Amino acid sequence: MKTQAGWISLCGKILILACLVATWTLSIPTFAQDDRGDAEPARPAEEGADSSREAEAPASGKRARTKPQGIPTRLSDLFRAGGPMMWPLAACSVIVVAFAIERQVLLRRRRVIPKDFVTRFLEHLKSGQLDRASALELCEKNGSPIAQVFAHGVRKWGKPSVEVEQAIIDGGERQIGLLRKHLRVMNTVATVAPLMGLLGTVYGMILCFNELATSTAVVGKTEELAKGIGMALVATGGGLVVAIPSLILYMYLAGRVDAVVMEMDLMAQKVVHLISAEGLASHPGEHPRLAPRPKTIGTAALKNT
Which residues contact 150 (CB under 8 A, 6 or more apart)? Predict the structure, then answer.
């Protein structure tokens, strides 16, 4: 089990590194030329009206280039337009994806509650083929979360049911803590990401209005204001894009943990009834090693009868 956990941790680190590299690649500015007029070769000047039309072309092309183009549509351009808060949002998305994959692997039912082990363990307890030492060895050898819960109860073998149940509850709480590991981080990201996006929007709006206030140009202020506000809202959109999947993944994984815990509790109750003092006393024949020895009647008692 330790080797498997080590491999899972290594895969998570590799995934985080790959996502960081991808995010860094998206942030590299692109220098592609979108104007088809720049790529076309210059044509020779013609006589008459053609020469005057070509003389007016550069001016019209210059005006077309200075016209605001609106919000960019490329992912890399949107990332840069969102401002500095897009970097923490990108890091949060990487963390959520890595932890979601790690929890998805570790919360598999056959890993948490191996069906073959549980069935064989309960059958051997009912038939009396296990004592305290062999049952504890079997649980420690399996190493699954349900086996660790059983081991806490087996250590109280033959004690009253209250003590056995309390030992199983203590062991179950530890396993529940391990099963819920990293889920709080996902919930935190789902809560903080919209606030980070809102902070990025406020920062972008401050810069936009400050630039308009200090600008002396009058023409095009409305277009520039609309473009600045649109770019500032990109940060809010990025925060929601990160927060919504994070909340969905958190609710899904928390539901899986609750379902697994309920099933573990049901099986642990069966173990309590089999190994507690009350259970052993009510079914002594099923546990030959713990069955009481038959009493012998002395000769004095036979004479008196």
Answer: 121, 135, 139, 168, 268, 271
pLDDT tens string 23-66: 444 444 433 333 344 444 444 444 444 444 444 444 444 444 44
Largest pairwise CA distance in the chain: 149
Q: What whole-number distance in Å separates Cα of residue 189 and Cα of residue 93?
A: 8
Assess contact for 71 and 230: CB atoms under 8 A: yes
Give the residue from 187, 183, 14 showing the smallest Cα distance to 99: 183
- pLDDT level of residue 252 (50, 70, 90 thresholds): very high
pLDDT tops 50 at residue 14: yes
Side chain identity at 49, as an amino acid letter? Answer: A
DSSP code, position 63: H
CA 139/CA 143 separation, integer angstroms: 6
**Residue 260 identity:** V
Threshold 0.70, pTM exceeds:
no
- Confidence grade of residue 70 (pLDDT, cut at 50, 70, 90): low
**Close Cβ partners of 70 (under 8 Å, ≥ 6 residues apart):** 227, 230
3-state secondary structure of 294: coil
Whole-number Å distance between alpha carbons of 26 and 24: 5
- Structure tokens that stand for 271 in this block: 């173990």
